[in-house]
What we know:
By secondary structure, this protein is an alpha/beta fold. Helix content is 49%, strand content 17%. It folds into two domains: 2-161 and 355-371, Rossmann fold (3-Layer(aba) Sandwich), CATH 3.40.50; 169-350, Rossmann fold (3-Layer(aba) Sandwich). It is built from 18 helices and 13 strands. The strands form two sheets. A seven-stranded parallel beta sheet has the order 3-2-1-4-5-6-7, with helices on both faces. Helix 4 (66-83) packs across helix 5. The termini are close together. The mean pLDDT is 90.
Amino acid sequence: MKYYLIAGEASGDLHASNLMKALRQEDGGATFRCWGGDLMDSAGGHLVKHYKELAFMGFWEVVKNLRTISKNLDFCKKDIAANQPDVLILVDYSGFNLRIAQWANREGLKVFYYISPQVWASRQSRVEKIKKYVDKLFVILPFEKAFYQQFDMDVDFVGHPLLDAIETFKKPVEKQFIVKKPIIALLPGSRQQEIAVVLKIMLPMVQHFTNYQFIIAVAPAIPLSFYEEIIKKSGIQKNAVSLVQDDTYAVLNQSKAAIVTSGTATLETALFEVPQVVCYKGNWLTYQIAKRIIKVPYISLVNLIANRPLVKELIQNDLTVANLKKELQHILSDQKAKALQLAYRQIKKQLGDVGASKRAAKLMVTYLKDND
Length: 372
């Protein structure tokens, strides 16, 4: 069968690539055309457009790039129509993908959504669009099935694909960095906009915690020169912090603590049982709008799944060098670290067993065959 997948950021690229591998095992004749990243390309997809051309974060940033987004939507619709896939698989990235879903439904195309938009966090009105335009929804967080049942929607909970990705990482011989000091990982996000803001506040920690080695996990598709320029402007000596590309899991696997920008990385850090401080700071207008529409009490997946403030979240004006120093010192204590690690193991149990990609692929192929 012909599959057309759309992912708009690094985490979507990872999960979609693993889904593609699982789909090929279930469907020997599978072909893939996709919007995504290098991992989807490596998994055998014909990459139409890279997500680095699509990643606009925040309300003001989206407004500034409306013309580009509109062109991308038009191009995407034409490409899907020209290729007539058996199914369109949308992966998170709700702003773009829900518009495509609406169009595809009108065109009579089969639409599957893998990894639900975070409608439980804000703008719950989008549930009605999902219900109307999506044929099957596959969710990855344990509380999402009950959430959708409130709207009379039967969705498939397949477990979290991060468990698959981490399991795959741990199978080969683990890479060991040559270090003389314990590592503190810096994960400043996956988009240039957020990295530029947050990394400037993370970097002073290098001067305050001289008994540790700091490693920045470089986001996919972001050039090293971008980080190097920020480091240079910070006044931190270049050799005081390391940059590691394409090896975030290897960094986390050996870290004593981490400072993490909110997003999927908070859950990845938890699954490696690394104590963390969660950060977020955005454009003033974007933050003011978000503050008024977000309906959940936390911004990190870790706290949302735990349903309590398990890890410290430093948001907007609270994200200062002084506050970050204080919280980092706190999580480096053995007592706090052990408590966090025990709680992380409970979160892992809630996410289900490994095999999310395989379960999702099996269900997708079954639904498609049943429809023939």
